[in-house]
């Protein structure tokens, strides 16, 4: 009877505990050691078995992505919602009820607790060293982690002064971070019983790679071991990055690859040169290393300086033109002796291209802090269409206006039948030149001897009227338009590759926009100019674009533009953080 009861109890034991109990029973037949009896009684205790079962279930929940938090700043969002509702309480009874409900202390406390859990602000902290401890005595902690296919999520380095192996960084979301027991600055004494004194980080890595099952670390705790709190910073990457080809990254396996335009959650900026980040779309993933803004800026400045020296040495006496400079080059030069270079026949735009390009070359695009910009009923963001001459921006704009003339408004050249003050506002040349000098125009130019431009006030008046302002300015107007007052959504209309561009324009009998005197189709040279201009625009201003639309098939491009405009009006979208604050 006793054996049956014992078997039933063993069936409820954790498998690992059952295995240990069996091993102890075998050892008990060989020895009557009191320590074995003590361990046997401990392992058979209901309390320990219950703790192991709880640990197993918690660990299983932690591995379930379905239960991972979607965000860690719900309290911040709560205050943003309250601010929005406060302006509408007098309009709707439901708004007023929700506004009062969200101010309840119990609900707000719940959200704060949720954020604390989502930010992992519940990990245990090692107690501070007691004051009466002998200064020569070192506290040792032993940490065991089960090795899996997942990386450990920590990097190590050799301390220059002492030669000790130190934990350099803990990757947010990794195994070491989740354990809560390994901290930056901890000194590694042993790994699986192997003393690491005098060894290099590469030697320690080899020990870890050759280890299986449980990995045991013997560590000397660092002086400061605060729990890592994830920052709430989100950025849009303005460049492509691959750790596999970065010779300076401390650990390629710990790196995070990304592309220009990706939204990254910067979870830690503790290291001056290497931030920890994860893609916003991968909220439960382990964080990876990316170059910090300071490191990337220094790297780009160094590369541009080197290329500038090489470029000046290899191109002495040659002619360079802004229309033929390869867009892949980070140094875009303009030469006054460019008469032998073919220039595209475009409208005369009132920009000092040389001066403006020099300014743009000094802009070092790395990261831009962003936040979600929520649409406001009746207040629409301006839609700015940027593109090379002849790519079809005006046709796309015309079709969008034709779909809903009451909703979409724009500015353009005066046509037959138009009346001053209705389609255009006419002023004297002296008045307009004075306004241009005062910075009242977001874009200005000269066409057939007349000045024309788009004033900032005209854009604001369209927005205030509850309409969508559509603009297709010269690409150099981006900096003047991209302000917190206007909050534009910028779309780059791009041409397809040469063969498709030529085929689609020929079939549509498209007329060249490069020749003001003759009505004719595009030439091959003009198609090439269009493609080169688009590449140049993308190189200089691509990091400012919210959307890119390839205008190969006009119908497809228009539908994508229409869907994009609809999305702007109805969905919260990433925008510069300064526009939201």
From TrEMBL:
Q: Which Gene3D superfamilies match?
A: 2.30.42.10, L27 domain, P-loop containing nucleotide triphosphate hydrolases, SH3 Domains
Provide the SH3 domain boundaries: 230-300
Q: Which GO terms describe its cellular component?
A: anchoring junction; membrane
Q: Which UniProt keywords apply?
A: Cell junction, Membrane, Repeat, SH3 domain
Domain L27 residues, every copy = 13-66, 67-125
Signal sequence range: none
- Occurrences of domain Guanylate kinase-like (ranges): 380-566
Claim: Membrane is one of the keywords in the record: yes
User: Which segments constitute the PDZ domain?
Assistant: 142-223
UniProt record similarity statement? Belongs to the MAGUK family.
Extract the PANTHER family matched here.
MEMBRANE-ASSOCIATED GUANYLATE KINASE MAGUK
Record-given protein name:
MAGUK p55 subfamily member 7
Protein species of origin: Glossina brevipalpis
Origin organism lineage: Eukaryota, Metazoa, Ecdysozoa, Arthropoda, Hexapoda
């Amino acid at each position: 009877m006793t054996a049956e009861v014992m078997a039933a109890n063993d069936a409820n034991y954790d498998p690992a505990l059952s295995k240990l109990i069996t091993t102890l029973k075998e050892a008990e037949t060989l020895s009557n050691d009191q320590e074995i009896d003590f361990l046997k009684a401990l392992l058979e205790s209901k309390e320990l078995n219950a703790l192991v079962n709880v640990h197993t279930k918690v660990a299983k929940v932690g591995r379930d992505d379905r239960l991972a938090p979607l965000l860690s700043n719900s309290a911040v969002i709560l205050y943003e919602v309250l601010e929005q509702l406060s302006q509408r309480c007098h309009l709707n009874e439901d708004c007023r009820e929700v506004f009062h409900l969200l101010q309840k202390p119990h609900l707000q406390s719940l959200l704060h607790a949720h954020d604390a859990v989502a930010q992992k602000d519940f990990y245990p902290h090692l107690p501070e060293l007691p004051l009466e401890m002998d200064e020569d005595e070192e506290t040792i902690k032993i940490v065991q982690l089960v090795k899996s296919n997942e990386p450990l999520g920590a990097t190590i380095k050799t301390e220059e002064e002492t030669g000790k192996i130190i934990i350099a960084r803990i990757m947010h979301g990794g195994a070491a971070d989740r354990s809560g027991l390994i901290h930056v600055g901890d000194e590694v004494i042993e790994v699986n019983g192997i003393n690491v004194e005098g060894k290099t980080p590469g030697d320690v890595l080899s020990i870890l790679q050759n280890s299986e099952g449980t990995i045991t670390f013997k560590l000397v705790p660092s002086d400061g071991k605060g729990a890592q709190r994830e920052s709430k910073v989100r950025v849009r990457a303005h460049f492509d990055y691959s750790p596999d080809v970065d010779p300076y990254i401390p650990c390629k396996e710990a790196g995070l690859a990304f592309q220009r335009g990706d939204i990254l959650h910067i979870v830690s900026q503790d290291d001056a040169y290497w931030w920890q980040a994860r893609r916003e779309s991968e909220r439960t993933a382990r964080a990876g290393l990316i170059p910090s803004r300071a490191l990337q800026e220094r790297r780009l400045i160094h590369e541009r300086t080197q290329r500038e020296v090489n470029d000046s040495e290899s191109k002495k006496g040659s002619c360079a033109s802004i229309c033929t400079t390869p867009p892949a080059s980070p140094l875009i030069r303009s030469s006054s002796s460019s008469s032998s270079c073919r220039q595209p026949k475009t409208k005369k735009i009132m920009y000092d291209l040389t001066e403006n390009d020099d300014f743009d070359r000094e802009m070092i695009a790395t990261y831009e802090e962003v936040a979600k910009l929520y649409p406001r009923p009746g207040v629409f963001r301006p839609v700015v269409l940027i593109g090379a001459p002849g790519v079809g921006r005006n046709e796309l704009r015309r079709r969008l206006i034709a779909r809903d003339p009451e909703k979409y408004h724009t500015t353009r050249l005066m046509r037959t039948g138009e009346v001053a003050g209705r389609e255009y506002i006419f002023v004297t040349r002296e008045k307009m030149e004075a306004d241009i000098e005062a910075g009242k125009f977001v874009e200005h130019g000269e066409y057939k001897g007349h000045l024309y431009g788009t004033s900032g006030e005209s854009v604001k008046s369209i927005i205030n009227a509850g309409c969508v302002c559509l603009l297709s300015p010269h690409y150099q107007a981006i900096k003047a338009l991209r302000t917190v007052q206007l909050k534009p959504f910028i779309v780059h209309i791009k041409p397809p590759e040469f063969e498709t561009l030529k085929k689609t324009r020929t079939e549509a009998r498209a007329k060249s926009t490069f020749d003001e005197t003759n009505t004719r189709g595009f030439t091959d040279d003009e198609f090439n100019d269009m493609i080169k201009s688009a590449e140049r625009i993308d190189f200089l201003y691509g990091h400012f674009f919210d959307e890119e639309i390839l205008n190969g098939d006009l119908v497809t491009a228009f539908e994508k533009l229409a869907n994009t405009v609809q999305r702007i009006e109805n969905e919260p979208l990433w925008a510069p953080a300064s526009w939201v604050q």
